[in-house]
Task: inverse folding
């Protein structure tokens, strides 16, 4: 939260409401009395959305835009409806879930079924409705970042030291951890995840996950999977690739275009 707040104060952009000079403060005609401009709320949300680090294609997505009838098989459509319903209820009752530090765990063994999309849509809604700070990262990138942080030392004035980075992942209100279980398992990987997740669990911080594995088959040690179990409600996703479907439609479009020339 601290980071996004800092970004507001030095925002040099124009006031989106056209009310202040972009500083977020409005002075009366005497120039002596100041009050906050309403744009602060908008800018705060915008900064939070930027800080969330969400991939471009998912930035503006809403849970309501998740299509449930796009899947070919009825049981997959049913799974999609149920996952969407869970996501909507979760956002609505976030106050209750977050008190217990409960997140969601979206999983399907099929790739491209909409896990990342639905998780990020939930994160977007949490920023917009509750103003929480959210951060998206794939499990692989998280580990890479931490690996690279080893040779950055505080003495050299580096910001992203190991301690600073670990702390960032521990304190963010909502962490969206994408594609867990895809990394090569090792003692070190277990250690990093244990440290972050245990801390988040203890402090009842919400974590959202996506994975190609159900909880039982995650390649982590039991101490970690037990914690994920405690921290998130499992949401079964359809076993069908929308990505492939979209690709096929695109390819057909190009094929048609070329054939017609
Ligand atoms: N239900 C849906 N409605 C509309 N678009 C969807 C839906 N599900 C997936 N898509 C689109 O399909 C593509 C793949 O979705 P996404 O990346 O969320 O899949 P995934 O399950 O996370 O895949 P992977 O297992 O490879 O990580 C994206 O472009 C996404 O926007
Ligand atoms: Mg994904
Ligand atoms: Zn303003």
Result:
């Amino acid at each position: 939260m601290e980071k996004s707040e800092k970004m507001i104060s030095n925002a040099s952009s124009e006031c989106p409401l056209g009310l202040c000079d972009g500083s977020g403060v409005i002075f009366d005609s005497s120039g002596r009395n100041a009050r906050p401009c309403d744009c602060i709320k908008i800018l705060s949300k915008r900064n939070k959305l930027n800080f969330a680090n969400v991939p471009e294609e998912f930035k503006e997505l809403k849970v309501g835009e998740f299509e449930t009838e796009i899947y070919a098989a009825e049981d997959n459509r049913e799974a999609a409806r149920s996952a969407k319903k869970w996501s909507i209820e979760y956002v609505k009752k976030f106050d209750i879930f977050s008190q217990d530090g409960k997140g969601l765990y979206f999983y399907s063994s099929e790739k491209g079924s909409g896990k990342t999309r639905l998780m990020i849509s939930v994160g977007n809604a949490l920023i917009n409705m509750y103003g929480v700070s959210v951060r998206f990262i794939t499990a692989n990138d998280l580990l890479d970042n931490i690996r690279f942080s080893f040779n950055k030392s505080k003495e050299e004035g580096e910001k992203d030291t190991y301690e600073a980075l670990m702390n960032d992942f521990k304190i963010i209100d909502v962490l969206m951890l994408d594609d867990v279980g895809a990394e090569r398992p090792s003692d070190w990987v277990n250690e990093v995840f244990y440290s972050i997740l245990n801390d988040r669990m203890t402090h009842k911080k919400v974590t959202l996950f996506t994975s190609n594995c159900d909880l039982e088959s995650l390649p982590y040690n039991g101490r970690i999977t037990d914690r994920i179990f405690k921290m998130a409600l499992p949401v079964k996703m359809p076993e069908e690739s929308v990505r492939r479907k979209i690709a096929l439609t695109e390819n057909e479009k190009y094929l048609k275009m070329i054939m017609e020339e």
Q: What stands out?
A: Residues 57, 66-67, 70, 80, 111-117, 179, 210, 212, 242-243, 246 surround adenosine-5'-triphosphate (ligand 1) (CB under 6 Å). Residues 52-247 form a domain with the Rossmann fold fold (CATH 3.40.50.300).
